[in-house]
Specification:
By secondary structure, the chain is an alpha+beta fold. The protein has a domain at 2-68. Helices cover 51% and strands 23% of the residues. The chain has three helices and nine strands; from the N terminus they run H-E-E-E-H-E-E-H-E-E-E-E. The protein has helices at residues 2-64, 91-100, 117-123; strands at residues 70-73, 76-81, 86-89, 107-109, 113-115, 125-127, 130-132, 142-145, 150-155. A hairpin with a 2-residue loop joins strand 6 (125-127) and strand 7. The termini are far apart.
Length: 157
C-alpha cells in the first residue's frame, strides 16, 4: 500500500512539474508571438512609407516630364499607367434606353434581359462625366468617374 501511495504522490508531483513547464512555455510562446507581430507591423509600416515616397518621387518626375512612365531603382521599378474611367450605372435605365432606340445588339437575352456593357462601351464615348452616343445623346443611368493614375512599385529581392 505504501508503495502505491508513494507512486501516486510522485505522479502528482510530476503532473504539477509538467503543468508548470507547460505554463512557462505558453507564456514564452505568447511573448514570441507578440514580438513577431510587432516586428511584422514595423516592417509593414516601413514598406508603406517607402512605397509612398517612391510614388511621390515618380509623380514629381511625371510633373516635370509627362513622358516618364517608370523609374528604376536599385531595389526594383516604380511604374505608372493611366486607368480607364470608372462607370456607375443603373442597368434598368440603360436597358430601357437601349430598347427604346432599338439597340438590340446591346441587350442580351438570358433567363433575364441584361445590358451588353461591352457593346455599349464600343458604341459610345466618354464626354465629361457622361457616356455619349455617336449622335451626341447622353446615355441615361451612367455616370463616369475619372480614376487617378495607377502607380505600381515592384521590388526585386
Amino acid at each position: 500500500m505504501r508503495s502505491i501511495r508513494d507512486a501516486q504522490s510522485r505522479i502528482g508531483e510530476e503532473l504539477e512539474t509538467h503543468k508548470r513547464y507547460r505554463d512557462r512555455l505558453t507564456e514564452e510562446l505568447c511573448l514570441i508571438n507578440d514580438a513577431e507581430a510587432a516586428a511584422i507591423k514595423g516592417d509593414m509600416d516601413k514598406i508603406a512609407y517607402l512605397t509612398s515616397q517612391l510614388e511621390a518621387h515618380l509623380l514629381n518626375k511625371r510633373a516635370v516630364d509627362p513622358s516618364v512612365k517608370s523609374i528604376k531603382t536599385p531595389w526594383g521599378e516604380v511604374s505608372s499607367r493611366l486607368q480607364g474611367p470608372e462607370f456607375k450605372r443603373e442597368d434598368n435605365l440603360v436597358l430601357h434606353w437601349a430598347e427604346r432606340y432599338n439597340f438590340t445588339t446591346l441587350v442580351r437575352e438570358k433567363t433575364t434581359r441584361e445590358i451588353n456593357w461591352e457593346g455599349i462601351r464600343m458604341l459610345c464615348h466618354v464626354r465629361d462625366d457622361n457616356l455619349v452616343t455617336p449622335d451626341g445623346e447622353v446615355v441615361p443611368g451612367v455616370t463616369v468617374f475619372e480614376r487617378p493614375l495607377k502607380v505600381t512599385v515592384k521590388c526585386e529581392p
